[in-house]
Amino acid sequence: MAKTDGAEPAEAKPASPARVAAFRTGLSAESRAAALLMAKGYRILAKRFKTPHGEIDLVAKKRNLLVFVEVKARARLDDAAYAVTPRQQARIIDAAQGWLMVHPEHAEFDLRFDAILIAPRHLPRHLLAAFDASR
């Protein structure tokens, strides 16, 4: 029998309904954004690429262009655009460096940071070069 310190294992706290709804909305928005990119001739290389520095919603490729895409879903397109904050941009740029370290075959590609904005009753809006990596 194994020794224990008497502490009970911590149980996972169930996610709130609002958090679950937000997660589902995010997944749906990312799927719509990926479909939009594929319709424009991009190939999706990764979804939700995670690093210790941050997450990239979508990584896409078109010829020798590698695009790191932030997807934002909000009630209004303007709100979605403002949600891509400078702090978040820095985290995405750091995560992109992580992608390039794991995928050196893309090191010579041109890089771009896009945003795709999703709002109810609107077509998704694809912002090319929404921000750049110069800080």
Give a brief description.
By secondary structure, the protein is an alpha+beta fold. Helices cover 34% and strands 32% of the residues.
Strand order within the widest sheet?
1-2-3-4-5
Q: What is the third-level CATH name, the topology?
A: Trna Endonuclease, Chain: A, domain 1
Assign the CATH architecture.
3-Layer(aba) Sandwich
Number of helices: 3
The rounded Rg comes to 18 Å
Order of helices and strands: HEEEHHEE
Total strand segments: 5
How far is the first residue's CA from the last residue's CA?
56 Å
**Mean pLDDT level:** 86
Largest beta-sheet details: 5 strands, mixed
Q: What class, by secondary structure content? A: alpha+beta
* CATH C-level: Alpha Beta
Helicity, as a percent range = 25-40%
Folded structure, characterized:
This protein is α+β, with helices and mostly antiparallel strands and 135 residues long. It has a single domain, classed as Trna Endonuclease, Chain: A, domain 1. Helices cover 34% and strands 32% of the residues. The protein contains 3 helices and 5 strands; from the N terminus they run αβββααββ. The protein has helices at residues 17-39, 77-82, 86-102; strands at 43-51, 54-62, 65-73, 110-118, 125-131. The radius of gyration is 18 Å and the shape is globular. The termini are far apart. It holds the Pfam family UPF0102.
Summarize the helices and strands and which ones pair or pack.
Layout: H1 17-39, E1 43-51, E2 54-62, E3 65-73, H2 77-82, H3 86-102, E4 110-118, E5 125-131
Parallel strand pairs: 3-4
Antiparallel strand pairs: 1-2, 2-3, 4-5
